[in-house]
Amino acid sequence: MAVSDHVNLEEFMNGLRRRNPGETEFHQAVYEVAANVFDFIADKEIYHEQQILRRIAEPDRIISFRVCWEDDNGNIRVNRGYRVQNNNSIGPYKGGLRFHPSVNQSILKFLAFEQTFKNSLTGLPMGGGKGGADFNPKGKSNNEIMRFCQSFMTELHRHVGEDTDVPAGDIGVGAREIGYLFGQWKRLTNKFTGTLTGKGREYGGSPIRTEATGYGTVYMLQDMLKKAGHDVEGKSCLVSGSGNVATYAIEKVNQLGGKAVTASDSSGFIYDPHGIDDERLAYLMDLKNNRRGRIEEYANEWGCEFHAGKRPWGVKADVALPCATQNEISQKEAQTLIANGCMAVSEGANMPTEQEGIHDFTKARVLFAPSKAANAGGVAISGLEMSQNSARITWKEEELQALLRNIMGDIHERCAEYGQTKEGYVDYVKGANIAGFIKVADAMIAYGVV
Ligand code: NDP
Ligand code: 2IT
Asked: The CATH number of the domain where 241 resides is what?
């Protein structure tokens, strides 16, 4: 086929939209990658001929199943569970499970697609997958959570395994849920293998897996700032979310001498000009992890502002760290951040910035680390949890801390290599997409048509 006969980006996206009607998050995630990859492969015939991007954007398989469970009042409840196994060209499917009422096929397909590139960027042998359920953990008792997890795993166990597909946590799935899920997996299979990551330390979990995503997001920020001649020290940071990723991002900001002034949940955000220092962060972690409280309680405890129903992006600060969920920075909010002098954004959440917002950040030369690079530290330590489980050993915390720092440094370098522009600006979005793509694409070519 002559190069001029190739489908162009618009034709490719039209086909994708036609084949996946209504799946707007999935379209958005694929577009972000395709826009860069089409440029990169313009003169690389093999990637066109082999239809590589079209194949990566068609999940290997999607498993969808009913999850029945009984609530504390004896009512039968029904949810829908999923596992999207996107691509296993460079390793077993790997990616988290999300329990949230908004979960649907489009969201999990976008997350599994993104995960494929993210896992490639870590340099570890992991393919891309994601799963979850439209189950709402809020207000549920421990016993209800346990029964839900057991029912969910009763179906999922047929499709996962240490060399097949290795789930982990994501929104609504933390240490407690992983414990219940792993307990049921072990019971059903009569095996003790590293089939889930993010496990408790007593039963095969890796040191620093809990901290890794948030820490990694701030390491990425640190490396971007350093390359541009700046430092985290003294920088004010807007953080959204108050879960796993947000709280450990705040911890690392504090360690590096920065100051986090906001945190949020789905009910609103708190603005604490004093900074969420270690004492206040310990309170926030206890509030969220042990008491499962709302962010407003933080404002009452520390006498600061609570803005109900709002997101933090209108506050003036140097840096933004979105760590809650997808599409939580609109184009308008991106423009407000730019107008307020925000110099860097590192995405802890998956796809938190709308496409047009990313465009505006790039145009304004804001240092912008996209999620597939910035939050890859979590899955990287998951990959190392798999290694430790296979070898039946546990590495020391200091070793894992150093490995995480190195992996994030390598990711930054690879993104900078492929994202360097002639004007001297680093387009980290482009860099992450291309660096993540190449390894998966070349493995697929090696396998032939499968
Ligand atoms: P948690 O469940 O621990 O925390 C999620 C936080 O985000 C909560 O504060 C929650 O508020 C808020 N949130 C969730 N959904 C929404 C929404 N629709 N609107 C507003 N706020 C919302 O999840 P994580 O910290 O693990 O995950 C946060 C993000 O990071 C997600 O995008 C996830 O995919 C991504 N991520 C997570 C990794 C991990 O290792 N855990 C790894 C890489 C990425 P509320 O309690 O009110 O719902
Ligand atoms: O989005 C993600 O990278 C995660 N939720 C973590 C995945 C994992 O397997 O650790």
From this structure: 3.40.50.720
Question: Is 422 designated active site?
Answer: no
What is residue 93's three-state secondary structure? strand
Residue 3: pLDDT above 70? no
**Nearest ligand 1 atom to alpha carbon 379:** 42
Indicate if ligand 1 lies below 6 Å from the C-beta of 324.
Answer: yes
Among 170, 178, 306, residue to substitute to test ligand 1 (most atoms within 8 Å of Cβ):
170
Same domain, 49 and 71: no
pLDDT above 90: percentage of residues in the chain: 98
150 belongs to a structural domain: yes
Q: Does one domain contain both 174 and 255?
A: no
Indicate whether 72 pLDDT > 60: yes
> Please, what sign has the CA dihedral across residues 412, 416, 419, 425?
positive
* pLDDT recorded at residue 5: 62
Pairing mode, if any, of strands 165-168 and 93-99?
A: parallel
Active site residue: 94, 130, 372, 430, which one? Answer: 130
Tokens at residue 61, please? 């398989």
In the sheet with 262-265, reading across from the earlier edge strand, the strands are 262-265, 268-271, 305-308
